[in-house]
Amino acid sequence: MQTGTYTATRSRLETYFDRTAVEAWKRLTSDAPVGSIRATVRAGRDAMRATLLSWLPAELGGRALLDAGCGTGALATEAAGRGATVVAIDLSPTLVALARDRAGNAAIDWRVGDMLDPALGAFDHVVAMDSLIHYRAGDVVRALTALAPRTRHSILFTFAPRTPALTLMHATGKLFPRGNRSPAIQPLAERGLHAAIAAEPALHGFGIGRTHRVAAGFYISQALELVRR
Ligand SMILES: C[S@@+](CC[C@H](N)C(=O)[O-])C[C@H]1O[C@@H](n2cnc3c(N)ncnc32)[C@H](O)[C@@H]1O
Question: How far apart (Å, rounded) are the C-alpha atoms in residues 64 and 123?
Fold first, then answer.
């Protein structure tokens, strides 16, 4: 079930990623030079993408994967390159068009819309890299609950861990340059999130697997693996 806070956040993110920040996001996800703060974000994101990809089977032939909130499509493209059958979805038509362009001949089913749309079907793996970081804890758990029955093996996602460094960056407003701020990131306490997942009956078929934090300058994000028991 989608709550008012979920749909309100989604609508802000659509505006932000399709209009306000689209040029900055294109640049961040390219090889073009960026300032020193964004360079740390780019390096951190590269490390996070590598971590998530390393949690998938090396050989992805015959596996169906959903890149949930694919942005400019880097993860989807790498997964397709390893043989996965990929559906990649994002709220932003502009980013999806760019992703399709960048991916060239990769056989990826690009979609514009909500990652929780049941019409997308079922997958072996769902990966949501930094696409749930703006949603409240309750909405993150509800999103996992919606994805769980459609996931045969694992759900990999990231959240912003509630750490003193992240709290300080938020307080000083340094995470994104002025005038180009993202909708607020919602830092989540790791223990509280684990407890909420364990307490959710719809997620009882899944156990918490690997977890890994990337803290690289101005990028702090934590990956969590939910594996079907
Ligand atoms: C921080 S970007 C990360 C993009 C990509 N996963 C990456 O790591 O490069 C978050 C993306 O999630 C997308 N997003 C957020 N909520 C979504 C939803 N409910 N359905 C589909 N996409 C969503 C946004 O439009 C945005 O492109």
Answer: 5
- Cβ(96) to ligand 1 under 6 A? no
Indicate if the pLDDT at residue 177 is higher than 60. no
pTM for this predicted structure: 0.95
State the CB neighbour count (10 A cutoff) for residue 15.
13
Residue 139 Cβ inside 6 Å of ligand 1? The answer reads no
Please state whether beta strands 206-216 and 219-228 pair in parallel, antiparallel, or not at all (unpaired). antiparallel
Q: What is the Å distance from ligand 1's center to 17 Cα?
A: 8
* Best residue for ligand 1 mutational test, from 9, 87, 91, 140 (most atoms within 8 Å of Cβ): 91
Q: Supply the angle between the helices 74-81 and 93-103 in degrees, to the nearest 10.
A: 40
Distance CA 199, CA 220 (A): 26
pLDDT in tens, 125-152: 999 999 999 999 999 999 999 999 999 9
